[in-house]
Specification:
The protein is mainly β.
Length: about 350
Amino acid sequence: MILCADTCAQWQPLPSRTTESLRGLSVFNQGIIWASGTHGTYLFTSNGGETWTAGRVPGAESLDFRGVISFGPQVYLLAAGPGEQSRIYHTGHFGDEWQLQFTNRELKGFFDCMAFSDSRHGIVVGDPVDGKFRILLTNDGGVRWRYSDPRKMPPAVAGEGAFAASNSCITVAGRKNAWFVTGGAVARVFRSTDGGHNWKVSATPIVHGEPSTGIFSVAFRDAKHGVIAGGDYAHPERGGANLAMSDDGGKTWKLAPAKQQRFFSAVTYVSPDGLLVAGSGASGLSRDGLRTWQFFSPVGFNVLSLKPGFGVAYAAGANGSVARTVLGSCQAPCEPGGGEPR
């Protein structure tokens, strides 16, 4: 039972006008929000989600857009898939025209997620090729994308990969600091302090060992304080070692003390100590650095996004589901550790 669910923020469903599975979501401001998903689908709103425009990128109908980054009318889409199904598209006109910026030509390549520190500086992480994770960088808004030197990347472990689940397996803090997370045989955090050129890696206590387990999402509120979320997507009902935190820039990680109730594919900061998490079968809010749950809901999503300071968070998931919640509406805390979703 959720001890304070009736007094806390609730998810408000929004009319997305699509039934595609959505894993990309990007809030630009209080009005403009973009989402993306299967069969080359994108959708956007200019009124905070009250109404949505849905479309497909021409020639991309077979692609799965797992990531979207919005700078208002300027948008980047990341298609995830084997070989040439991994691509990057760009528009500067609210989707009226789309430009194919980059196509992966490596047969073993698979793009997982992307992040931008501003409209010109972007980074993409892909699964290992020849034993090294692939990092793609741009500093001119995607006019040119270049792979970083694989010699500066620690080797991957056999059976290790990244998850293209919510476009949050990589994150940045400014132009210098970047982190990406992995799963499968191990659950590790790779970190860079020079814009994605040189990398170091750290082990974490997140569950791992099976192909469906590991870290799915990472968020940092600054260069030192971060959180990782994951679990086992084949068994989303399982709790356990699914959430951990760092206060030293990702060098070391400790399990969060809050009761770890479900698999989570997305995590994001809503305040210095506030965190919102979501997975396919549940979502939750903590106001105190994952010591306790403010609310925990049986409503699940794939991806989360918000703009700091707006007080509204958005989520998207299966069958075109899109929703929002007003974070300020939750006042009374739950009992320590929260409770099972009812």
